[in-house]
Each structure stands twice: as structure tokens, then as C-alpha cells.
Amino acid sequence: AEIWSGAFNPGQRVFDVQVEGQLVFDNLDVVTEAGAPLTAHIIDVTTTVADGSLTITTVPVVQNPKLSAFSVWHVTAPPPTPTPPPSSTPATTAFSDPTVQGLIDTTDAVSGTGGALLTITPGNNVQKSNYGNNSFSLTNTGTKRIAAVYLDVSTALFSDVVFDGDGTGGDSVAKVLTYNSGGGTVGAIGQGSYNWLWQPARGGSFVANAAFSSSALTDVDNLFVDATSNSGKPSPAAGGGFRGELLLFTGFDATETVGFSGDMDPNSIAGLTKNSVDSGSNQAGTNSNFDVGGVSGAEMVGSIVTVLFGDGTTATGMLAHDGTQSGAVAVIGANAAAPGLTVNGVSPGGTGTYGGTRPTIVATGPPGDVVRVTMVKAFDPTGNTSSTVATGAITVDALVEARLLAQYPDFPVNNAVQWQHVDVTIPSGGSVDLTQNAAFDYVNINNVGGANDFTDDDILPIAFVAVTVDAQGQPLGDTSAPIRLINAGGPVP
User: Fold this and answer.
1) 3-class SS at 399?
2) How far apart are CA 62 and CA 27, in angstroms?
3) Do 186 and 104 touch, CB atoms closer than 8 A?
4) Would strands 314-318 and 257-261 be described as parallel, antiparallel, or unpaired?
5) pLDDT tens digits, residue range 313-342?
6) How far apart, in whole angstroms, are the C-alpha atoms of residue 489 and residue 65?
């Protein structure tokens, strides 16, 4: 408090205060700070005393400095906030695996740009499968060498898809990661040399070159016997398969391309023979059975692709629908946020219903952006009601249906039957209503993608995603999480 009448007015006593040599108050005017003379003004300062002696210094500016009283308290400094460890992802975990670190080199000088382009099964056959040679095509579009690539399908639009390198994650047909072209040029390392499968779909673990052990796995059922194969002997346990696949390279340089393939399946058909799941399947208007076990690039939309470069840096991309009936594309390094999307009021990642009227579709984003909104019609084509599993306890058709309902009750499907999309420019208001857009046909198949109209094709489960694209239709960033809807109101007129 200012108690001398000669300094009752602001500006009549002004001084600086230093604590441990540091200026803590510059031009302190007690009357101004307190609001009136004869009024206490209490201030707090926290400092560190390094020499055992606390030093407080006042420096006059106007009149002599004056401190009425002070007290000193010892306080314990709070513990330092720990630095959080780097975030761990399935990709970073796989990249750091000992079997991997001994095979690749990530000591290049940090320079240049890192980028890649991945395309998977482009084309207009909705049943196209990535089992075929060169189904995956990966090009190094940057200047950095590519050392490793990790494919994570745990976020795929079709949640049921898995990598099935040994025939235990899907039907009995299997194929390991196979390089079909360019493998020698890019220095592709054979999958038998390291742990190439990650993220077990139902638990358990994977050991390179080891025999599959069904005892380590669990599933929603215990019906693992396929009476249509091996003379009724038990087939591998359902629930094998993996959500992650790792590729390694020693000399994957700029502009080079490698083609590869493998086997992926819906996990809901695990432990069954291909013949048993395809036999009697929904023909989708064709004259032959549906390829239930085939997985296309389009069905992998939303999956994450992570690339490890030769200098130890990484970049990611997400698979987007390429506008065809079977294809997907990822631009690694493209990082635009996914555009906004709602369908019947449901946001990305949510589930809901449709029927009776056209779904209300609204896309949002920065004005001028071109957004691709994709809809897929989905189903479970399995229809074998004669072959049974578990010594006749349940049919193949009923078993697959039960697995899908148990795992994905809001979207119990494992195959796409038709893809539809529209590319639209976001107007000045930042949103566009696509409810009446003619690109979306909820009633007909019309031989699009190799399928034709069939019973109940107008009340199928449907899903929507969105991505921002460039003038060539290539994704500029992330694909939105799927919005999944089942029919609850009948066909859309």
C-alpha cells in the first residue's frame, strides 16, 4: 500500500523489481495497480534459487522504491510433463519388427520427395478378384527409394475382407504374396524371409514359415468342420486371416513399378471350400455362380497404405474408389481431409436405414473442390442350402449368414454387386444436395458391372463414401469413413 501522502497520486512513485536478477515488474506504480492509496496490492512471483540466497532488487524510476512486506515460501516444482512416445500404428510396428530391420536399409540421406501410386483391379467386372496376376500395381512417383509398404484393410468399407495366405482366413483356395512383374527390378524380398502378415482377424499370431495352428484362434462359432471336403475331416478353424500385409524392397527407385497379387477373402467364409460357398450362390442375374471369395480393389476402399522410404521417413494414403466397378486407387502423400458427407442424417462411420423415399445425401467441403461421392450395393451371395457343416448341424448358407450377423449386425454383407458414383463441384455455399441426383439408382442393376436384376435387388444394404479428387479423378487425400444403411422401408420408388 502507498502510505505517504506525497505519492498518493499515480506516477508519483514508480520503480522496477528484479528477483534473482530477472526483471519481474517494470515501472511498477502501486497506486495505479491498487486503484487507490492506502490500499494493499499483493503480487506473487515464483523463482528458482540456485545459490542458496534469494535476491530481491528494486530500481528507482520516480521517487524511492518501497516494499511494505514480503514473505518467502518454499514450493516443490511440479514434475516435468513426460514427452509422449511416438504414436504407434500397425505399420510402424511392422516396420520395426526384427525380421524386417535386418532386411531393409533406411539410412539414405534425407532429401527429395516421397510418393507412390497404388492401383488395385481397375475395370468393369464387379466380381474381379485381386487373386489374378498384377492385380496390384505400385509405382514410385517420388524421388526417394521405397523400402517397405504396409497395407492395412482394417478400415476397409467391407469390414469382412482379410489377407488369406494359407487358406484359413477364407475359402480353401489360397495364394501367398506373389510378385508378378518388376520384382527383380525393385529388389522385392520374398515373403518367406520375414513376418509378412499382421493384425490377426480373430486373434492368434503369425510366425513366418510356420504351420497354421487353429488352436490359437477364436471365432463367433465353433463350427469348423466342412463335410464337403477331406471326406468330412475337420478343416482349418474359421477365423484365420489377417488385416495387414507387409512388402519389402531393396532397390525400389523413382519411376519404377512392381505388380503383385495374393489371396484375399471374406472372413465369414473361413474354413469352407470354394465349391461349397460358390455352389448355389446368388447368380446376380448372371448364368453362373457368384465368386463369393473374390475381393476387388473397390471392396478395399478406405484401407490405409503406408510407405517407408529409404531415408526412414513415411507417408500414407487411403484407397479411394476409382470410378469403375472393381477398382481402387491410393495416392501416397496426398493429405487433404476427407470431405463432409451425410446420408439420411447419418455421418461417416455411422449406420442407419433407408427405404420408401430417396436417401437425403449432402456433401460439404471448400467451394471449388471436386468431390466424388460413391454408393455401393452390397449383399451376401452365399446360397448353398444343401451342403452342411459340423456333421449336418447347419448349412453353409446359414453358417455364413450367422457369422455376418454376429460380427456386423448393421451391415451383414461380404460382397459388392454394383458401384455408382458422381463427381460434383462444391458450390459457393460449401454444400451440395445430391438427393435427386440421377447417378444413384436404388432400383436397378441393369447389367452394370456384369450383374443384372435379381429378386430383392432393390432393398439391398448400401454404403456411401466420399473423397476429394483432382481433374484426372485421382484422390487428393482421405476417403471418408463409410456410411452404411440397411433397408427398412421397402424399395425406393
Assistant:
1) helix
2) 9
3) no
4) unpaired
5) 999 999 999 999 999 999 999 989 999 999
6) 83
